[in-house]
């Protein structure tokens, strides 16, 4: 079950607030929220010509908390002080999404759109201003056409569901996307998500052939009606900056009937440094059918009691049989000493289940488990490496990893198909010239502010230590490993300059084209968040001011600190 954050302790003298004033302002807050809810319901009903109460959850609804928590995948973002949506909308029809956009815009509330809830910074379900959460989990239809070798998949579907439905229809087709089965399709694809077939087939967005999106005017657009620029932008530029993604049409990819998997581990005492150094030379240049992910983790040494070491783990998918794989790595990576008994042949769907951390032979049915209301506390960051790290550099890195705490590093090799596709083909620019991508990974179980600060400091320290080894000018980052440390947009008159800070890190030379598309399709900047694509400066209309009246009524803005306190306690 999801863990709750510790209680807030910032109020030292509650007796200083007269009880009748407390009750007065609490009552007024709920009244304001009820008024907004009533206005929204009336608008939504009018727009859809339907009864809509069954898809709406006000904060007073008994199911509100369970619906909100179901797809929060980071406990760090589920505290008593985390801002909660004024209303949760759970559309079951595309027209519900259209109406939600129109009505949110008319009453001056922001929209946040959640597909699977895996945004590492929670941008899909939290905001500093009053907002409506559009929770897409009901829009998860999957329609496969094997003759076309395509699939239409709803934004609210998970990849576990997509992989399972493909497997039901065909044992020789797959799709190159997330290894985590609970990740939502909408956010993953719109942010250029990847999987363990990226060296063979590229990114998920490289196989998108159509899409349906609700724009800022409430219109449903497909590839033909949205035009090439917007279609380009939502294939890696983050859909939430441009509208609400309803569904994507994807090309399936061929997979062999037999694939091969293995995992090997070495510590520093077992010559892990040599393994990691050689991995950098082999993993990005080897056969395109081979993907070798490298995990680096500080662990307790089994050979030297009381001391720490670093463990290197190589996790592999090979689109071929065991004999081919053992022969290949025997020539290219003899340091592994790989033998046939070290590897396992399975089906593609079997490899999907294994990569999702289930035992070999586990039924694919587990991929249908959405595992709601489950999360750890976590922090993630990203980097790109364009030159191999020397052995001296690796030895220095081991010391810093052990010194800085528990943060692990995940190296994902590029090359293959990734080097063949131009950087401008989609908004995702990190193609040729990048050896591998790094994910900084830190998870913990302790609740509270102190634990959060300590772990945040750990991952930031290691990120700083890595500066000499990673890309520069800009130091590149991956949008789907959302990281607010690299820049935040307050969406005021400086929106473009603030957006450029993180924009060039995520998108490099593609940032300016994204800004032009954004300005053309959403000039009022309705679809905005802390790291959205900004509009050009001359088009900025002070978007944050649109919510002033709502913000005032919900927060009961006043001069005294206790007024703001109760707005926080009400989570509005």
Structural write-up:
Its cofactor is FAD. Residues 81-255 form the FAD-binding PCMH-type domain. Belongs to the oxygen-dependent FAD-linked oxidoreductase family. It is a single chain. Helices cover 32% and strands 18% of the residues. Helix 1 (19-48) crosses helix 3 and helix 1 (19-48) crosses helix 15. Strands 15-12-14-13-17-18-16 form a seven-stranded antiparallel β-sheet. A five-stranded antiparallel β-sheet has the order 5-6-10-8-9. Strands 1-2-4-3 form a four-stranded mixed β-sheet, sandwiched between helices. The chain is globular and about 70 Å long. The protein has 572 residues and is an alpha+beta fold. Mean pLDDT is 90; it is low at 1-17, 19-28 and 542-572.
Radius of gyration: 24 Å
Helix % is: 25-40%
Give the distance, in angstroms, between the N- and C-terminal Cα atoms. 24 Å
Number of strands: 18
Keywords: Disulfide bond, FAD, Flavoprotein, Glycoprotein, Signal
Family: Belongs to the oxygen-dependent FAD-linked oxidoreductase family.
Domain FAD-binding PCMH-type: 81-255
GO molecular function: FAD binding; oxidoreductase activity
Blueprint (SSEs and pairs):
Elements lengths: L18 H30 L7 E3 L5 H7 L16 E3 L4 H14 L2 E5 L16 E5 L6 E4 L4 E5 L4 H11 L3 E2 L10 H6 L7 H4 L6 E7 L5 E2 L1 H11 L10 E8 L1 E2 L4 E9 L4 H11 L7 E11 L7 E11 L3 H11 L11 E3 L1 H8 L21 E9 L5 H14 L3 E6 L22 E9 L4 H17 L29 H13 L3 H11 L26 H8 L5 H9 L3
Parallel strand pairs: 2-4, 3-4
Antiparallel strand pairs: 1-2, 5-6, 6-10, 7-11, 8-9, 8-10, 12-14, 12-15, 13-14, 13-17, 16-18, 17-18
């Amino acid at each position: 079950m999801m863990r709750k954050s510790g209680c807030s302790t910032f109020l030292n003298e509650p007796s200083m607030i007269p009880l009748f004033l407390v009750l007065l302002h609490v009552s007024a807050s709920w009244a304001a929220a009820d008024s907004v809810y009533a206005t929204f319901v009336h608008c939504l009903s009018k727009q859809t010509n339907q009864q809509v109460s069954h898809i709406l959850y006000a904060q007073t609804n008994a199911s509100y908390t369970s619906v909100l928590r179901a797809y929060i995948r980071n406990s760090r973002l589920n505290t008593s002080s985390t801002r909660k949506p004024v209303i949760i909308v759970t559309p079951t029809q595309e027209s519900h999404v259209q109406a939600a956009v129109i009505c949110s815009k008319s009453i001056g509330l922001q929209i946040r759109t959640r597909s699977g809830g895996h945004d590492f910074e929670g941008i899909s379900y939290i905001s500093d201003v009053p907002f409506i959460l559009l929770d897409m989990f009901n829009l998860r239809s999957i329609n496969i056409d094997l003759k076309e070798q395509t699939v239409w998949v709803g934004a609210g579907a998970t990849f576990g569901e997509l992989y399972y439905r493909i497997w039901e229809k065909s044992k020789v087709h797959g799709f190159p996307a997330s290894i985590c089965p609970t990740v939502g399709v909408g956010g993953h694809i719109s942010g250029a998500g990847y999987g363990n077939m990226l060296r063979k087939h590229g990114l998920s967005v490289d196989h998108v052939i159509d899409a349906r999106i609700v724009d800022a005017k409430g219109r449903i657009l497909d590839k033909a009606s949205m035009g090439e620029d917007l279609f380009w932008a939502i294939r890696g530029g983050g859909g939430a900056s441009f509208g609400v993604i309803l569904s994507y049409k994807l090309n399936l990819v061929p997979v062999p009937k037999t694939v091969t998997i293995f995992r090997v581990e070495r510590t520093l005492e077992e010559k892990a440094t040599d393994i990691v150094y050689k991995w950098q030379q082999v993993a990005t240049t080897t056969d395109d059918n081979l993907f070798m992910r490298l995990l680096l983790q500080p662990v307790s040494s089994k050979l030297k009691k009381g001391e720490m070491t670093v463990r290197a783990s190589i996790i592999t998918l090979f689109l071929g049989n065991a004999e081919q794989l053992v022969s290949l790595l025997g020539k290219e990576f003899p340091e592994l000493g790989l033998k046939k008994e070290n590897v396992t042949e399975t089906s593609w769907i079997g490899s999907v289940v294994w990569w999702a951390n289930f035992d070999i032979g586990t039924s694919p049915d587990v991929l249908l488990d959405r595992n709601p209301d489950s999360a750890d506390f976590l922090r993630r960051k990203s980097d790109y490496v364009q030159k191999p790290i020397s052995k001296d550099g690796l030895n220095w890195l081991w010391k810093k990893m052990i010194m800085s705490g528990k943060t692990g590093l995940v190296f994902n090799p590029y090359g293959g198909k990734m080097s063949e596709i131009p950087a401008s083909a989609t908004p995702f620019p990190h193609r040729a010239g990048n050896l591998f991508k790094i994910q900084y990974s830190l998870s913990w179980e302790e609740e509270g502010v102190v634990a959060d600060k300590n772990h945040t400091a750990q991952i930031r320290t290691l990120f700083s230590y890595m500066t000499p080894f990673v890309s520069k000018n800009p130091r590149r980052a991956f949008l789907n490993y959302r990281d607010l440390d690299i820049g935040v947009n307050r969406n005021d008159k400086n929106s473009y300059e603030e957006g450029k800070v993180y924009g060039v890190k995520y998108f490099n030379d593609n940032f300016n084209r994204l800004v032009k598309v954004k300005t053309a399709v959403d000039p009022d900047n309705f679809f905005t968040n802390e790291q959205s694509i900004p509009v050009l400066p001359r088009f900025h209309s002070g978007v944050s001011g649109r919510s002033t009246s709502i913000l005032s009524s919900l927060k009961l803005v006043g001069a005294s600190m206790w007024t703001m306190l109760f707005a926080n306690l009400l989570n509005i």
